[in-house]
Amino acid sequence: MDRIPAASAPAPARRRALAALAALAAAPGAARAQAYPSRTLRIVVPHAAGGNSDAFGRILAQRLAERIGQPVVVENRTGAGGTIACASIARAPADGYQIVVADTGTHAIAPQLYGSRLQYDVFKDFTPVSLAATFPTVLLLHPSVPATTVQEFIALAKSQPGKLTFSSAGTGNGSHLAQTVFLHAAGGLDMIHVPYKGGAPAIQALIAGEVQMTAVSVNTSLPHIRSGRARALALASSKRSPALPDLPTLAESGVQGGEADNWLALLAPPGLPADIAATLAREVNATLVLPEVREKLAGLGLEVVAGGSQAYTELLRRDVVKWTEAVKRSGAVAD
User: Fold this and answer.
1) CA angle centred on 202, ends 317 and 146, rounded to 5°
2) pLDDT for 47-86, tens place per residue?
3) Which pLDDT score, from 0 to 100, does residue 34 have?
4) Residue 210: which residues within 8 A CB-CB, separation 6 or more?
5) Using CB atoms within 10 A of its CB, is residue 1 exposed (0-12), middle (13-18) or buried (19+)?
6) Using an 8 Å Cβ cutoff, are 214 and 166 in contact?
7) What pairs with residue 131 in β-bridges?
8) In three state form, how does the secondary structure of the chain look?
């Protein structure tokens, strides 16, 4: 019988062995992509329960859990205008199991408001997952104010410089700055700012007639508008809201540059691996565009955007410039 040459006999075995080694070398990354997510995902909300970001996080969590087949829990971490929660995510492990509901205040306003005390870089210390939703700001008046249009209110304020007052949820808060932007855009109206410790006391001050104007989100304003305890003046936003379809924007009322659009975005820790980031973004955005989710969020005055990381970064760059100017103009400094 002819012998097989010694050198050629093991060649197929060697090829199989090398292929097996190559597969083993590639396995950790492949296993990671297939396994993620394999445990509880945590959505961190930087504000107290009951607000826009909290309601958004809970609506998203329920349906996202169904999609990914893993529990999704919401954790409220409050303090320092939401920056404490965001700082915790900036330092969290980049494993895809913690994300934060960031907003205009925590990322566009905070850099100027907190300055060197801010414990994160809004561009470098996060991995954008999704630009998730936008919501408008409503300017409200006490019913006793003798003005039913923006132009009538401007004329009234100009006739009484330093007499009319407006409330906010605190110095440097979004409601404070939205009204500061409006006063500047309307020709430099002279009104007195009365800050409160939170949105609830700020709107109660308006209802009680302690102040003449305030600014709140649409969902917060609706019960008070419907009851007649407050009058909607205009939307300090770039477009009308389906929740208040007959209420004009400031631009439509003749005041240009008074927009104070708000947004929510989902951000992960820096350095999130690309495969995990892609999976997380895909599942989050697929959840946000579900008709049921859209409908629930619309009922709160939130409009789903479900944009990618590039859309978020471009918006943030524009808004940092805009709100930096607003903070400087207001003279606000974080406590």
Assistant:
1) 100
2) 989 889 999 999 999 999 999 999 999 999 999 999 999 9
3) 56
4) 165, 167, 194
5) exposed
6) yes
7) 265, 307
8) CCCCCCCCCCHHHHHHHHHHHHHHHHHHHHHHHHHCCCCCEEEEECCCCCCHHHHHHHHHHHHHHHHHCCCEEEEECCCHHHHHHHHHHHCCCCCCCEEEEEEHHHHHHHHHHHHHHCCCCCCCCCEEEEEEEEECEEEEECCCCCCCCHHHHHHHHHHCCCCCEEEECCCCCHHHHHHHHHHHHCCCCCCEEEECCCHHHHHHHHHCCCCCEEEEEHHHHHHHHHHCCCEEEEECCCCCECCECCCCECCCCCCCCCCCCEEEEEEECCCCCHHHHHHHHHHHHHHHCCHHHHHHHHCCCCEEEEECHHHHHHHHHHHHHHHHHHHHHHCCCCC
Residue listed under structure tokens 């913690």: 98
117-122 long-range Cβ contacts below 8 angstroms, 24+ apart: 117/334, 118/83, 119/83, 119/87, 119/90, 120/83, 120/86, 120/87, 120/90, 122/316, 122/320
Under 8 Å between Cβ of 212 and 145? yes
Domains of the chain in sequence order: 40-134+261-330 (3.40.190.150), 137-235 (3.40.190.10)
Which amino acid is it at 23?
A
Q: Which of 111, 87, 112 is nearest to 98 (CA)?
A: 87
Say how far apart CA 282 and CA 303 lie, in whole Å.
Answer: 19
The pTM is what? 0.86
**Confidence label for 324 from pLDDT (cuts 50, 70 and 90):** very high
